[in-house]
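Issue: ligand-bound run for zinc ion - logging full I/O for the record.

Environment: standard queue, default settings, no custom constraints.

Inputs:
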Amino acid sequence: MIHVRLPDGATRALTPASTAADLASAISPSLAKRTVAAVVDGQMADLNTPLPDGAAVELLPREDARALELIRHDLAHVLAEAVQTLWPGTKTAIGPAIAHGFYYDFERDTPFTPEDLPVIEKKMREIIAARRPFTREVWSPDAARAHFEAAGETWKLELLDAIPEGEPVTIYRQGDWLDLCRGPHMRHTGDVGGAFKLTHVAGAYWRGDATNPMLSRIYGVAFADKVALDAHLTMLTEAEKRDHRRLGREMDLFHFEEVAPGSVFWHPRGWRLFQTLIGYMRTRQEEAGYVEVNSPDIMDRALWETSGHWQNYRANMFLAQTEDDRDYALKPMNCPGHMLIYGQGTKSYRDLPLKLAEFGKVHRYEPSGALHGLLRVRSFTQDDAHIYCTPEQLTEECLKVNDLVLSIYRDFGFDDVRIKLSTRPESRIGSDESWDRSEDALSTALETAGHAYTVFEGEGAFYGPKLEYVLRDAIGRDWQCGTLQVDFNLPERFGSTYVAPSGEKLPPVMLHRALFGSLERFTGILIEHHAGHLPLWLAPVQVVVATITGAADHWAADVAETLREAGLRVETDLRNEKIGYKVREHALKKVPVQIALGTREADEQTVTLRRHGAPETQTMPLSEAVTALVRDAKAHGGA
Ligand SMILES: [Zn+2]
Ligand SMILES: [Zn+2]
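Outputs:
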């Protein structure tokens, strides 16, 4: 007999070579009916794999969140079978489960089109209805090679070659169809259920490498039930409506050009929004004791060798040579420049903490396929700062950064913030004492603030632990923005010191922190979060004063002037167009307040106000409107 342990601590005796399916049946027939997979010693496993003696076994029902990945992976197999049934001779490459769904890459003379998807989906539902059992087989490498060669599956031959010698070659079969696969899978195709949808097709290079052939990829989304699927599909539709690239065009904020891939051309309105973000952050940082500096954009390779970027990060850097044969790089990060500023003059413990901030523009080479509007660019502005402090000050400084970042996110309408703490990795520099102190400083900051966080053991950088701040937006998407990182490495590389009270020269503790992260990316997130309807204090044009008749032109000029003097960002629209036309145009540009002026308003010195989201217009004396708008334009979130 063998013995296995269940999650509740109970043990069960089974005959040797029993499987998780046998275990489920031994416990109860109803459990066996519900169970689709198992977790054996912490690893997901098929129900049909024999259990080792002494194993810890958890039986998973289909509803368990961990089964979702199996649903998605099973669907990838079902998709591939459907495609090969419909178009025999199509070659299969790889088909993993991904976030929200799955995909499969195929090679075919004619790439798939969106019109093919309903046909494929129908075939998939037939395969699911047939409840074909998934069976695992171990083949010899030669047998596998012979099979895939005969089938013309050249990509599978490459995958076979990549399996290390001695590792088993496993095949998963569903009826007549089979695939090279590590598994695990559920019991049969019926377990995947019906909550899936094929969403789109895309070209994809084999192994993501542009020098390899282009394959045709079919994407699908899948969930455990229809409620979750529908929620996701609604989110996708909503995300499409909020796409910042389209809104950016409609609101006339920015554009991109092929001459500068991944670099933004900001239009007047977009640049005003950008500057509003900088102005806001500058004020908050000044209040928090930061000092702003500016470091050069292009610096000699010698600096990047000292910082280690030349050795470790060069593939992501834009390089430049000059006539005098010097090698330069555009800065991909601001830190090395700040190390040089810190290094000027002797620093004493009385100078610390020193908080150097820079709205530094950094350049990083990203593959062109990865670029995505403002969200993934090649040049961006960080709200970067480096805090130099003593070990004794570390906890308090982390606490201050944490308070600042959360208060700032609230001002922008992000109340749902998740925090990740990444701790010491296996290979690292720095003493265990300094890791203890730094990890403790970060966790204490979060606990003092009463904020929940998730620990990612071993995921910190080799040079220090970090916090990452993830914002959840209005439609439930997560965006990692802020970071707070402790660094034992750079002060050592640059030989940075401060004079301690004892007169001894010691290395300072260094913190890197960015709160927006990339201002370009944050702008994109902000546009999508608010669906373009930025709060009044952020809107690049806050008020448009539009006339209904030329007779109101003078009054319009007076109104605009009064609003401007009150500090509002105002434009006038005196064109000889119908007011309905003007209103629609400014609404498309998401101007939050429109003022319409006709003869009556001009005679009575009033204004008729139309606010975004308000059902009706309101007519009031100008002074009343000014007071209300000034009040609203100052209010942001909790501030
Ligand atoms: Zn598989
Ligand atoms: Zn830094």
